[in-house]
Amino acid sequence: MTSYERRLEIFDILRENKTVDVNRLADHFGVSTMTIRRDLATFEKEGLITTTYGGAVLNREVQELDAAPSLQSKVDLTARKIGSAACRRLTNGDTVFLDTGSLAVAAALSMGERTLTVVTNSLDAANVLRNFPRVRLIIAPGVFNDVRGGMLGSHTISFLRQFHFDATILCGEYLDTSFGLSVEDETDAHLKATAIDCAASNIILINGQDLGRTAFAQAVAWRRIQSIITDENADPAMLDAIEKRGVDVEIAK
What we know:
Elements lengths: L2 H15 L1 E3 H8 L3 H13 L3 E4 L2 E4 L1 H6 L11 H12 L6 E4 L3 H8 L6 E5 L2 H7 L5 E5 L3 E3 L4 E3 L1 H7 L6 E5 L2 E3 L3 E4 L2 H12 L4 E4 L11 E4 L6 E4 L5 H9 L3 E4 L2
Parallel strand pairs: 4-5, 4-9, 5-6, 9-12, 12-14, 14-15
Antiparallel strand pairs: 1-3, 2-3, 7-8, 10-11, 11-13
């Protein structure tokens, strides 16, 4: 577990219990009390908590607003498993394009222990990656798209064309055995296709419940998909159909 992942979980505990104890957190995470105090100091600096003797209390205004701070997890456990599985396929020194979406953020959370160059159009993923000193972060320019949580448009697409990636990690809305990877926004589809063009390999991250469905715009045709990582909610018949097409499928656990 990286320090960033630990802080995400600590803040989840704070939101649920409103208070935390330093010694209990140290035992839970298997780290020193000094490490936990540094984590809490980060939250206090952001105005989220007030430290006390032996612990900390979530500030009242944060409780009332149910605020989502920069370190709060935006992805559930299933997404984190998918993201971690994607990161295990990367090696030190790789250049990577990382897409937008919660599964991309999940992948970013697992990148802290690797030496990577990551180009991303996701502001959420960039906000995670900026905390990792071993990751060289390049943020793609463009017009901010609130739905995707990142940059999108012709400038973003043109920017990607100047790179060659060892791996592209994409997150589609739906994936079907006839239509391939699809999304609702045609510009987003164009961007994903460009990212595939620029990469030696590709990894598609998709929620199991989104297999077998289609959206408006095709992003990646089946013949171009190399690897898919999904979860245990995927329909076994759909997984079998995908594997018969010669695509590598992994169920994240």
